[in-house]
Design goal:
The complex is a heterodimer of chains A (335) and B (282). Chain A is α/β, with parallel strands linked by helices and 335 residues long. Chain A is built from 17 helices and 8 strands. Classes of the chains: A alpha/beta (335), B alpha/beta (282).
């Protein structure tokens, strides 16, 4: 069983590459699931992902797809890991949906939880996960710990009296008066209502904390693919990944790569084609410099995927995209 | 567009939103205005395009006429409590601040109202001729623009409600405030742009200033097929392929400024400076 996490900044082509890699695995006869977040319509229709729900749906031979639905995931999380009397009250609370959408890292945590459920199901040999773009996908890896510190953190402990017996009583004497002052400024009983919600959430801490450690183990064991282009913004996102993972070797894929040979090519072509080659050559050279710098800094041999004018819009083109990749060790990735 | 007092810049991740925000701020400063550039969520992009390491909650002087800040939540929250709600400083320590912090991360609209509130407060203050806000990405922009109204519905009375009134008015004042949406001519950014334009227009949250299309290519004249196989032909085929794809997506967008693809530029600050030059008065 191999889980493959595709991370990287926004707009670098993560979703397309996730789909391409999943298809490549399926083509090798491996039972594969691709979990994606928000694919382009054309890619979605190419894969048959249109209107796909969060349950895995067959797309092609050996290939299944599922979309992330963070709200649904969080309802499941509350149902599974909160005490039985608290779970339903939590999900029915008007703050629940807003809160789980607002919590830092909450979409990432939901995605990591979905991944773990699919790994545990034992139904697939390869699971490719297209991660949410926040913080270059780093948030995905830190989300279990962040969720623990959010729900178990001092703030909630203070608000709710922690897990002491009679915690509501403690809360009555510490937090509630402060909330009243704040509510007076707000002009409503808003904070008290929020606090009641947080008390229930706090009750789910033990279950969610335990689960988050399982999720962390699965994240640690997964193959991590960092996708980037040679542009500064995605590169700095990719750099964050290395800084936080202390330079552990990962699969790095540079997408939208131009042939550096264009830079050195003599251009006997008539205008405007000669000038056009010259400017694209400059761009190819800039890309190559950025790639070399990044590779030298982190001691990696990145794979490269050539720049294509169009996002692949059918399975065949998607297959060709991965075929055209240079230096991508698929055997290693899928085992 | 630089005649406004507040420009909020949004766009899908990776399209050059921060580059455009930095360039607009630089342009206005070159033209002699007193300008504040604000990073509303994350300062990485804006700082890099302004050529500095990082931003702070206190203004950093970038050049003559241009300062920049990032809205950091603890500081923004304190300022909001003190300046806008009139909560005495002493009460901001300890329990009350923590209670508000809990609220800010839980209740819909509060976190956003603190962020957009700071932007609007700086605009209203009179210190700046123009405030350029490097806003949240397209996916989150509507919830920020909607925040004062959301909060107004949530709280029935009190000082928070009083504050939302002028915020909503300043946001909706088309002579003062404009939203600039940045996109590239690709499927996902264009689709997202159209969706958020529709939502914002539908709810009349803010006047839409324009849609700026970044990294556009020009048409390449001449017969590619007449070229011999080789790099010149490959480059021309890629260029034409990308150009056609771009035209196809641009057709879905309203007319607006286009920024050309800058070949071979290395650093974000080079990109922002080039863009600011491009918008210079002829």
């Amino acid at each position: 069983m191999s889980a493959v996490l595709i991370t990287g900044g926004g707009g670098v082509g993560k979703t397309t590459l996730s789909a391409g890699l999943a298809l490549a695995a399926a083509d090798r006869g491996i039972r594969t699931l691709v979990v994606t977040i928000d694919p382009a319509k054309r890619l979605a229709s190419a894969l048959g992902l249109d209107g796909l729900g969060s349950d895995p749906t067959p797309l092609a031979d050996n290939l299944w797809g599922a979309m992330l639905d963070a709200t649904r995931s969080w309802n499941e999380i509350a149902r599974r890991y909160a005490p039985p009397d608290v779970g339903p009250r939590l999900t029915a609370n008007p703050f629940f949906e807003a809160a789980t959408q607002h919590f830092p890292a909450s979409q990432s945590f939901a995605a990591a939880e979905e991944m773990t459920i699919h790994i545990e199901s034992g139904k697939w040999d390869v699971i490719v996960v297209d991660t949410p773009p926040a913080a270059g996908g780093m948030e995905f890896f830190t989300s279990p710990a962040r969720m623990r510190s959010l729900i178990g953190g001092r703030l909630l402990k203070w608000l709710t009296g922690g897990s002491l017996p009679g915690r509501r009583l403690v809360y009555q004497f510490t937090a509630r008066p402060a909330l009243r002052i704040a509510d007076a400024a707000l002009g409503s009983a808003l904070l008290e209502a929020v606090a009641d919600f947080l008390i229930d959430l706090r009750a789910a801490y033990d279950g969610i904390a335990e689960r988050s450690r399982e999720i962390e183990r699965n994240l640690a064991a997964a193959h991590k693919v960092v996708v980037t282009t040679a542009d500064p913004a995605p590169l700095s996102e990719a750099t964050k990944f290395f800084e936080i993972h202390n330079g552990i070797p990962e699969f790095v894929v540079f997408n939208r790569v131009l042939p550096e040979s264009w830079y050195h090519a003599a251009s006997p072509a008539p205008a405007p084609f000669g000038d056009n080659l010259a400017r694209w050559g400059t761009e190819a050279h800039r890309q190559a410099e950025a790639r070399r710098q990044f590779s030298a800094r982190w001691h990696i041999e990145p794979a490269t995927v050539p720049w294509q004018p169009q996002t692949p819009n059918d399975l065949e083109k998607l297959g060709r995209l991965i075929d055209a990749a240079v230096g991508l060790d698929l055997d290693q990735l899928f085992t | 567009m630089l005649d406004k007092r507040l420009l909020i810049v949004t766009g899908k991740g990776g399209v050059g939103k921060s580059a455009v925000a930095a360039a607009l701020a630089l342009r206005a400063a070159f033209d002699g205005k007193r300008v504040l550039a604000m990073a509303m969520t994350d300062d990485t992009g804006l700082a890099a395009h302004l050529g500095i390491e990082r931003l702070r909650y206190r203004p950093t002087r970038i050049r003559s006429g241009l300062d920049a800040i990032v809205i950091e939540r603890p500081e923004a929250l304190n300022e909001y409590l003190r300046v806008q709600l009139g909560v005495p400083r002493i009460a901001q320590l300890g329990p009350l601040a923590r209670a508000f912090d809990a609220l800010a991360s839980t209740a819909p609209g509060i976190r956003e109202v603190i962020t957009i509130g700071k932007v609007l407060y700086e605009t209203r203050k009179g210190t700046w001729d123009l405030v350029v806000a490097d806003g949240p990405p397209t996916g989150q922009i509507a919830s920020h623009l909607r925040a004062p109204a959301t909060v107004a519905r949530l709280v029935g009375a009190g000082r928070v409600l009083d504050q939302t009134g002028w915020m909503t008015r300043l946001l909706g004042d088309r002579t003062a405030t404009g939203l600039t949406v940045v996109t590239t001519a690709e499927e996902l950014p264009v689709t997202e742009t159209i969706e958020s334009l529709a939502a914002i227009d539908d709810e009349q949250l803010v006047g839409i200033e324009n849609v700026i299309v970044n990294r556009t290519l020009d048409a390449l004249e001449g017969d590619v097929e007449s070229l011999d196989d080789g790099p010149a032909k490959q480059a021309a085929l890629l260029h034409n392929g990308l150009f056609e794809e771009q035209e196809r997506w641009i057709a879905h967008l309203p007319d607006g400024p286009r920024v050309p693809y800058f070949f071979g530029l290395h650093t974000p600050s080079e990109v922002a400076a080039r863009m600011a030059d491009l918008w210079g008065s002829p």
